[in-house]
Specification:
The chain has 326 residues and is mainly α. It is built from 15 helices and no strands.
């Protein structure tokens, strides 16, 4: 328990530093000015993410309940952990390095370490699969409804093929187990062969158990598997209403389909440059690029990006505070 408290304090410190850095980067004056401009629209924007996180929690709970012989975790306890996980992912570069280990630690008292690891890996896989579907649908819509030159058509077609290949690879991992394959791939890297081989030998049984549990969701309960995937996809689409609210607040009416496309290209760019801490610069570039692509004026791109960061700040501080609340 003492070690767990130390780890919680570490994540709390990381999140707090990231929160302060983000406020410093944006500027108190900029935050205040933008909140005054959108007025009461900040309320539906913040409340929208209550629903998005509820859907994320529901998909996580479906995965957990698929595992047998568990001391069931309550929905709101999992909701609290989910909020903190996303807060840590926002705060750390290459987000999954922070949030997912934290989630495993928090779930282990309820599920045991193996099943906690399996459930977190499966949730992350669903999150990735939903993103790939979201991007592929958005690319298809763009190619169909937006007049594009040949360069853009080729670039988007290549992006579609890459997303499809990654989707199939992730789905294959869910069907056949992914942990053993990952370690075997890492083992091929220079200087890591001896370390990884020793780790695999020491944890062979645990790796096999985790892979068996990962395979079990798709192979034994395909309805739960694809139902969870659809929940994650719906959550992704619902989150695009944030842009709809913002464009409306700035008296710039826009088709909701365009909001989906803007969010898709912005998130795609952010994930390509996943190593950037706090996605500094990547989101702004994504908004500008996607709005130009859709024939929209990019004048609101920076402003909209700032407001989405303000929303992130709000939920980041909520998630960070919840780390220390039972």
């Amino acid at each position: 328990m003492h070690n767990k408290s130390k780890i919680q304090n570490l994540f709390l410190l990381i999140g707090t530093i990231a929160f302060v850095l983000m406020i410093y980067k944006i500027g108190i004056g900029t935050i205040t000015d933008n909140l005054l401009k959108i007025e009461w629209w900040i309320i539906p924007i913040l409340c929208l993410w209550i629903l998005v996180y509820l859907l994320n929690t529901l998909s996580g709970l479906l995965i957990i309940n698929n595992l047998e012989d568990l001391r069931r975790i309550g929905f709101f306890q999992l909701y609290k952990i989910t909020l903190s996980t996303f807060a840590i992912n926002t705060a750390t570069p290459m987000g999954l390095i922070g949030g997912e280990p934290y989630k495993i630690i928090e779930l282990s008292p309820y599920l045991g370490s193996n099943k906690a690891t399996s459930s977190v890996i499966l949730f992350s896989a669903m999150h990735f699969l939903a993103h790939f579907i979201f991007w592929m649908l958005s690319i298809t819509l763009t190619l169909v409804i937006i007049p594009l030159d040949l360069t853009w058509k080729i670039a988007l077609s290549i992006s579609f093929i890459i997303c499809l290949l990654l989707f199939k690879l992730t789905l294959k991992g869910c069907k056949k187990g992914i942990i053993n394959s990952i370690f075997k791939s890492i083992k091929r890297l220079p200087l890591l062969e001896h370390i990884v081989t020793k780790f695999i030998e020491k944890n062979k049984n645990n790796i096999q158990i985790i892979d068996t549990q990962i395979r079990g969701l798709h192979n034994n309960n395909p309805k739960i598997f694809y139902g969870t995937l659809m929940i994650e996809l719906v959550a992704r689409i619902i989150s695009c209403a944030e842009l709809y609210f913002l464009f409306t607040a700035y008296q710039t009416p826009i088709n909701f389909i365009y909001c989906i496309l803007i969010m898709a290209f912005t998130s795609l760019l952010a994930n390509i440059l996943f190593f950037m801490p706090l996605q500094i610069g990547t989101r702004e570039a994504g908004f500008i690029l996607s709005m130009k692509l859709l024939g929209l004026s990019p004048t609101l791109a920076i402003t909209i990006s700032i407001v989405t960061r303000i929303r992130e700040l709000f939920w980041m501080i909520i998630g960070i505070i919840l780390i220390k609340i039972k």
